Amino acid sequence: MGGVAVLAGGLSSIAQSAGPTKEVRLVAGPGRARVVPSPHPETAIWAYNGTAPGPEIRVRQGERLRVAVENRLQEETTIHWHGVRVPNAMDGVPHLTQKPIAPGESFTYEFTVPDAGTYWYHPHQRSLEQVERGLCGALVVEEPEPLQVDRDVTWVLDDWRLLKDASISGDFGNRMDAGMSGRIGNTVTVNGRVRETFGVRAGERIRLRLVNAANARIFGLEFEGHRVQIVALDGQPVEPHAPEGGRIVLGPAMRADLVIDMTGAPGARFRVMDTFYQDLEYRLLDLAYADAPLRERPLEAPLALPGNPLPEPDVGAAARHEVTFDGGMMSGMMGGMMQGMGRGHVWAVNGVSASGHVMDPMFALPQGQSCILALHNNTAWHHPIHLHGHSCRVISRNGEPTRHREWQDTVLMAPRERAEIAFVADNPGDWMLHCHILEHQAAGMMGVIRVEPPGTRT
Amino acid sequence: MQGLLSATHDARKDTQMLRLISALGLLLMAIAGANAAEPARKATLYKSPQCSCCEEYAKYLRGNGFEVKVVATHDLALIRRDNGVPTAVEGCHTMLLGDRVIEGHVPVSAINLLLEKHPQVRGISLPGMPQGSPGMTGRKTAPFTIYSFGDGSHKVFATD
Q1: Residue A31's beta-bridge partner residues?
Q2: Which residue range(s) make up the domain with B85?
Q3: In a domain, B28, yes or no
């Protein structure tokens, strides 16, 4: 947590805030980082407080968080608090929820964090370049009673498209990246560096918070030789369960909290593999056991996390809206695009290819209304669909009820997949619904939904 | 409270990036080296791991006497950059045929024209993924314009 100024916890003057306020200062600006080891040179990056990822912000559930952001970039920026149910004005979407922070200017975000869990922060302004150059960081909201583990560890997973001199390839907005799987890099890092090992001890129980901060890479992690339990997805508790097929799949912007008991022998090594893309599987790093065990047998404490104060949608009485996603290569749309349109807009939500964050809402929901969104991925590509301001239960996929009815803020959809998500539209304002493959978002794959407070409906 | 992992890095070990970059470099060198001795109809096609039409294109070429090795990669943008494919004429995959570059769903007739009549041209492209082109589904609605490139520029090479 180096670099975060914690100025202590006096009571906030804001009326609804009962708990203490945590103060954090983030400076967005150019930096240098040793992404790949010597003999490669350092990499010029954009960073929060000089590091990529930026400082891990830790706050307790129900606390108020006040973050003063200073922009030392040469361009405008904002910060979006991904997955945190913040008031609309704190959501960090340029022009839609705030004026972007100009170079040399500052902006203070302040909100109460309602839900415990693993979240993250990143710019929403030209995010395809700003996030890719290193602007991202984990935001951990601690439960009042923490899960009983030996270590609580965060892995911010990211990838970089580096040239041979270890500099970041400048081909942002590449049209083929935009129309296909997004900008997938050639260098995968855990907490900002290429890693060989992660040290563990026999008998240790680790809560591992995974954050996928990559623009476009989907991770599919397998912990060889270990029984992994998923205890939270996108910050929200889920019934503890083993990942399907032994693989934790995380699309861009998604998070998973794992509990892993280190059941290997002292001195042993086990591979952590990323097997998501066929024929491109690779070893992320090794779990490297120390020679001395921590204890004979792992802890036997319960794994279930207490629930967050999320309103339960009334599925039977919910308003239903269809949201279709179209476009991209192999869709028929792209050939036409290539012949003439050439504006780089190759994706559409409900028939509209967005050219900016400010747009007419696809539909409006009265505040407090339960809502089902039926999402249709009509494309040949994966899309992690992110809804701002709310967490949603994923209630079905391809017409089949989901086993865990998991709460998510980012729903990974396979090619041609359909999913239904349910939530209570309890947070007033205009909220983005977009693909979190940032190249897809920039190429039109975003829309807005409106939640209207009582009395504003016309 | 670990934000960072313990940095137990051994710089002598090949890292993932080194592996990726050197594998790419070696591969390109191997292809360039092999070219002198082997027939020009032996090709390596680089494609996104999630794109299916490229496999169909490879089948089409094999049916026309080419020997095609398909390699999935996330590095198409870098391969194009290293092989002089201008951004304006990018196709959905990149194929190296000796020291020639075939970008996208280029019909065999154009490849043969390149090999037989234009020894000085670095490569040719059918940009995007036009419907009805070799390996693509759908119906061809208009003639395809194939571009040649080299030295960073591109111009019309043929129509098909």
Answers
A1: A45
A2: 40-159
A3: no
